[in-house]
Amino acid sequence: MFRSAYLDHDALTAQLRAWADAWPDLVRLSSIGTTPEGRDLWLLTLGRDPDRVRPSAWVDGNMHAAELAGSSVALGIAEDVIAVLRGENPRGLAPSELEVLREIRVFVLPRMSPDGAEAVLTTGRSVRSVPRDARPDALRPRWETADIDGDGLALSLRVRDPAGDFVEAPGFPGLMVPREPTDAGPFYKIWPEGRIVNDDGLSVPDPSYLSDNYPDLNRNFPFDWRGENEQAGAGPHPASEPESRAVVTFVEAHPELMAWLNLHTYGGVHIRPCGDRPDTRMDPSDLALFREIGAWAEELTGYPMVSGYEEFTYEPDKPLRGDMSEYAYRLRGCVTWVTEIWDLFAQLGLPRPKRFVDRYTSFGREELVRFATWDRDVNASRVFRPWRPFDHPQLGPVEIGGVDPRVGGNNPPPEELPGHVARLSALWLKTMALLPRVRLAVEVVPDGVRVEVSNLGYLPTNVLASAVGLPHNVPLWLLLEADGCTLGSPPRIEIGHLEGWGRGRGEGGGTSYQARSRGSGNRRVVPIAVRGPGQLRVTVGSCRVGWSTEVVDLA
Fold it and tell me: What are the residue ranges of helices labelled H in 172-312?
């Protein structure tokens, strides 16, 4: 169902349970927390032997309530991973990529804000992340979104006002566009459908996207968090919300996470690190990796990959604070990016500006007319709703209608979901196949054994060069246990991190006509002195890559 409709919490739960029941050896369903309204934060663990630590990846969606397609794509990735684990090849991957995917483990949180998504699905009300507001300034006048006319939707109010900043588009009755100096009117104010809390009867408060639904989960994560005075939607402290706290608690207990996909809508773009500095201040090998993935991303999905700082800051030199992807990159050392599903701009034939974020901020009258025309001709008029008169208990005569952005605005029409799911899943499967693959080989030689530890993966065991210093990104260790025989070497030997074979794109190595490989940094050979007969147990690994063990008999 998730490929043809946006699922409510019960339907999403049923889908997850169906997979867990059908393939219990491949799929585990658990809850990492409960929302204030009592809904589980469902997490899928995909892979054989789910408790065994090994390189792992994370996918989450729908942390912003109205961005429902994130859940759909997360579910599609989960279904494809299950298919790969069952021996299938749903996205035409190379055998070498399938081999990696069958070794790793994948965690999928399809809906990070189930309370918010349920409110959006059932009422259409505007919710950024969560449908609650526990701010202490309870006496402030504010808008509270509600379905006041009983039609099942919370849309917008419009009121005629000579100082109104909106006007109907010429030749398109009912379509509200920003007023220009030459317009003749009538003019309108537009506010959310709902009521004013703490109304004084004298003034109307400014509506905000966080008027009655605070905070924004994507400003509540504990990297570079700033308070509300600096970052709207931050919440009272990092991970103050049960949803973000559940994610942080789980993730910090899993240092083996190496890749992280954060699914949003809309825009048709992949937003990569860094979010707080230009590329000239980014680690060059990290940047080379993201250039490589960005090339695949554009080829497979049609979406460009852009710098969060250089192309996605709404105000120059003012990065967003406390967002999830920067937490994943800077504190957890993950290859990570945000995908904004659904390229509405391409549907309307709009060119890409120099800075991608300007696509959102420059959406003016011409673009609105194109949008309304597309909605009428292609989208069955799901977005733009007619205006109807209503007697508002506080404002008097108003009209109710306007924009319902759920299908066609914030999310693709359901009939287009299968293509989005397939393309984005193909990219993420390809990315997960880059994870490191540590191998242990032990050979008995005169006077002991020869241990070889190698990494056959694209990525190094530290994953990102910028992440080497993170406390959980520990080097590999060799552990030796003798039974009957006598060790002539220390029982613990630091192996260090091992390079991967990948270079990214534009990193510098191998770009000339006279190509050169790097040395043997992907391999470490350790001779171990052992005397006498017995058994030697050899273990190598770390909390990040997991552990491998071989036992050898010594005559």
Answer: 242-252, 284-301, 308-311
Q: Do 319 and 241 fall into the same domain?
A: yes
Q: Are 118 and 39 in contact (CB under 8 A)?
A: yes
Q: Which residues contact 47 (CB under 8 A, 6 or more apart)?
A: 26, 54, 56, 85, 104, 105, 106
For the stretch 463-512, pLDDT in tens is 999 999 999 999 999 999 999 999 999 999 999 999 999 999 987 555 55
| Tokens standing for residue 3 | 């490929």
Long-range Cβ contacts of 508-514 (<8 Å, 24+ apart) = 508/284, 508/288
Q: Are 270 and 257 in contact (CB under 8 A)?
A: no
Residue 385 pairs with which residues in a beta bridge? 402
Total domains in the fold of the chain: 3
Q: Alpha helices of 188-336 — where are they, by DSSP H?
A: 242-252, 284-301, 308-311, 324-326
Single pTM value for the model: 0.97
Check if the beta carbon of residue 349 is closer than 8 Å to that of residue 318. Answer: no
Beta-bridged to residue 550, according to DSSP, are 538
Looking at residue 217, what DSSP letter applies? G
Q: Is 446 found in the same domain as 354?
A: no
| Tokens (6 digits) for 458 | 């694209």
Exposure class string for 168-180: b at 16+ Cβ within 10 A, else e: bbeeeeebbbebe
Q: Is 69 helix (H, G, I), strand (E, B) or coil?
A: helix
Beta strand pairing status for 194-197 and 142-145? Answer: antiparallel
pLDDT digits (tens, 9 = 90+) for 21-57: 999 999 999 999 999 999 999 999 999 999 999 999 9
Q: How far is residue 435's CA from residue 28's CA, in Å, rounded to a whole number? A: 22
Nearest to 413 by CA among 377, 386, 387: 377
One domain, residues 272 and 395: no
Give the chain's mean pLDDT. Answer: 96
| Euclidean distance between CA atoms 175 and 316, whole angstroms | 32
The answer to whether residues 139 and 109 belong to one domain is no
Using a CB cutoff of 8 Å and minimum separation of 24, what contacts does 183-189 make? 186/160, 187/160, 187/161, 187/162, 187/163, 188/158, 188/159, 188/160, 188/161, 188/164, 189/158, 189/159, 189/161, 189/163, 189/164, 189/165
442 and 426 in one domain? no
Report the CATH number at residue 459: 2.60.40.10
Question: Is 417 a member of any domain?
Answer: yes
- Write down how long the chain is: 555
Looking only at the bridges linking them, the beta strands covering 546-554 and 105-109 are: unpaired
How many other C-beta atoms can be found within 10 angstroms of the C-beta atom of residue 230? 11
Q: What CA–CA distance (Å, rounded) separates 387 from 402?
A: 6
Does residue 256 belong to any structural domain of this protein? yes
List Cα–Cα distances, 532 to 446, 448, 484, 489, 529, in angstroms. 11, 9, 7, 14, 10
- Which stretch of DSSP H or E encloses residue 56? strand 56-61
Task: Note whether residue 126 is domain-resident.
Answer: no
